[in-house]
Hints:
By secondary structure, this protein is α/β, with parallel strands linked by helices. The protein has one domain: 3-Layer(aba) Sandwich (Molybdenum Cofactor Biosythetic Enzyme, Chain A). The chain is 39% helix and 19% strand. The protein contains seven helices and six strands, in the order E-H-H-E-H-E-H-E-H-E-E-H-H. The protein has a six-stranded mixed sheet, sandwiched between helices. The longest helix is centred in the N-terminal third of the chain and has 14 residues.
Amino acid sequence: MSQAAIIGILTVSDRASRGDYEDRGGPAIQAYLTELMSSPWMPVSRIVSDDRHLIAAELRKLADETQCCLIVTTGGTGPAVRDVTPEATGDVCEKMLPGFGELMRKVSLEKVPTAILSRQTAGIRGKALIINLPGQPRAIRECLSAVMPAVPWCIELIGGPRLETVPEVCRSYRPPGA
């Protein structure tokens, strides 16, 4: 059996980090990935407040120390003053992948006109792909479903493990012969 891929799940929320609010975003990501992944994986979940430096520090730890191949964040992607997840992601990434955010907004706009306010993005730090998602569980599923076909191949391209998905949930794409 191959070694389990480590996937980070980072909830960004002042209220959830203080315990004032139940984190629903992190569990929604984990539930979707449990349904989706056919290869072995292990979640590493964290919660931080909406603080750019704390978010960036946790992303660095998950990528560099925990060696996550994928880090999925939830929360902090809106236009509010405390919403700084995309900025923190930009602070730690060597390369940004704007196509992820473009596709997630397109999918979300089909459901709700305020999706244009969302600032989801993605980027690469070392051998980790970081994807920023909104905080609502329904939007998390919609956005992850939209981008997941490209995620396993992206992770392989940056030197990460080969991830396999359940085709009935999401068919990942790899070029012929890959």
